[in-house]
Design a protein that fits this description.
The protein is α/β, with parallel strands linked by helices and 498 residues long. It is 29% helix and 26% strand.
């Protein structure tokens, strides 16, 4: 038996979240977008969702043939079986010969009244609960004027409302992209947009332009078309995801690092690690991930630049065997292709790890790759702000790395996120006594007091070793330090032996 209680689910993963659980029943909705944005796929998922609930569905097509629709559905593993039906309002191929060219009724040449009559006849025969009309471009061409077109759409709306039908009208925007006639008639309007970046795959996003009498999630939402249908990634709103947790202090395996940080990193905080390439940013964040696993928690690392196999081998050379941890599910390593992944999809991946897999430590390495996925800096900051706030409110501890331009001297990051992070760790190369050395300093920590010293550090198979404060140097963070009067002239500075 058909269950027509509640809302009509869209059948599209993520879309009902945006629509506050789906479409209000017995209303007319407009789904508009240029060709290739996935309108037909979403409409098919809408009908299939109704079929799961025992609802009859009718797909009225004025542009594509029934065979094309069935083949498109088959590519996703779907079939148009009862209680679904396709009504094809196009001339059969058998009539396409030269002798009958003048008497043919193509969809673009049909009289508007005859077209409407045939649609009503199909409705009376099938008696559906859900209807898709594809597409309004053909109706607009038949109407030939905005006034007649509006009247026809209103007539269809009144007819559908009398028959208690939930309707999706598809519009491919090919005849007049500026025509907003149906916007005022429809109960809700969904706009699909396809973007073509200079490099990489196409990006798609959607926006709810209108939804009468219903709260919905505004703004743009990324989505993808994959085998199995459209998947939408609702825009993340961090204020909706707050849980209670204890902000205890989390320590790393390095006592020197813990001391520099004023005891450790607080749970539910974010840490930004800044430094030029090669200073050990990835290894530093990895030590915190390993410490989380040793506490019995799960950790996830999202790698933008480095190939995972190389990272695993490099970690092994430093005494960290990651593969058993990956196999056991305690460590999740994900290779992120910035050219193929939309920011909304990445945020969804992180959210899934935290909410569904129980991850408590998240490493994003690095924000340079994240910026490549979204070149507009302002949007990057807004996305990262929501993502960090979400992770903090979920009690997840976040580590982010940023590679600064240059090796020594004046260096700049491609994007400044220091004000967003709770803790900022600065790594530097510096030259002293004929060696290139590494220095570390904590330049910001909101959650507690910390050392304001600069220390030399070394990466090795035992982890990270920090020396005493570099009191014998001045200008270490500039990369070219100078001896001061009380400094020793030679040897390893402040206790780190060769």
């Amino acid at each position: 038996m058909s269950d027509l209680e509640g809302k009509a689910g869209s059948g599209v993963e993520g879309l009902d979240d945006i629509l506050s659980e789906g479409f209000n029943r017995n209303r007319l909705y407009l789904l508009e977008g240029s060709p290739g944005t996935g309108k037909t796929t979403i409409a098919t998922q809408f009908l299939l969702e109704g079929a799961k609930r025992g609802e009859r569905g009718l797909y009225i097509t004025l542009s594509e043939s029934e065979q094309e629709l069935r083949e498109s559905a088959a590519s996703h593993g779907w079939t148009f079986d009862a209680p679904l039906e396709i009504f094809e309002l196009v001339p059969p191929e058998s009539l396409l010969d030269d002798d009958q060219q003048q008497s043919l009724l193509y969809s673009s040449d049909l009289e508007l009244g005859e077209t409407t009559k045939r649609v009503f006849e199909a409705m009376e025969r099938v008696k559906p609960s859900r209807v898709v009309l594809d597409s309004l471009s053909e109706i607009r061409l038949l109407a030939q004027s905005s006034l007649r077109y509006r009247r026809q759409v209103l007539a269809l709306k009144h007819y559908f409302s009398k028959h208690n039908v939930t309707v999706l009208l598809l519009d491919d925007l090919t005849t007049d992209a500026l025509d907003k006639t149906v916007h005022s008639v429809a109960h809700g309007v969904l706009r699909l947009v396809e973007l073509a970046p200079d490099y990489g795959g196409e990006r798609r996003r959607m926006r709810i332009i209108k939804y009468r009498g219903q709260k919905y999630r505004g703004g743009y939402h990324d989505y993808v078309i994959d085998t199995g249908g459209v998947v939408v990634f609702p825009r993340l709103v961090s204020s909706e995801h707050r849980i209670a947790f204890t902000r205890d202090v989390l320590k790393s395996s390095s006592e020197g690092l813990n001391s520099l940080l004023g005891g450790g990193i607080e749970r539910g905080s974010s840490t930004l690690v800044l430094g030029p390439a090669g200073t050990g940013k990835s290894f530093l964040t990895l030590t915190f991930a390993m410490a989380a696993i040793e506490r019995g928690e799960k950790a996830a690392m999202f790698i933008f630049e480095e190939e995972l196999g190389l990272l695993i081998e490099r970690a092994k050379g430093l005494g960290l065997d990651l593969q058993p941890l990956i196999d056991s599910g305690h460590l999740m390593l994900a290779q992120i292709d910035a050219a193929e992944l939309a920011p909304g999809e990445f945020a969804h991946m992180v959210r899934t790890c935290v909410e569904e897999r129980g991850v408590k430590t998240v490493v994003i390495d690095s924000l340079n790759g994240y910026q490549a996925a979204m070149p507009e800096e302002r949007q990057l900051i807004l996305h990262m702000h929501e993502l960090l706030q979400f992770l903090n409110r979920q009690g997840a501890t976040t580590f982010l790395t940023v590679a600064q331009h240059g090796i020594v001297g004046d260096m700049r990051a491609p994007v400044d996120l220091t004000y967003l992070a709770d803790t900022v760790i600065l790594l530097r190369f510096f030259e002293a006594a004929g060696h290139v050395r590494r220095a570390i300093s904590v330049i910001k920590k909101r959650t507690s007091a910390h050392e304001d010293t600069i220390r030399e550090y070394r990466l090795h198979s035992g982890g990270i070793t920090l020396g005493e404060p570099l009191t014998g140097f001045q200008g270490v963070l500039s990369g070219a330090p100078e001896w001061i009067a009380s400094a020793r002239p030679t040897g390893r500075p402040n206790g780190l032996s060769d």
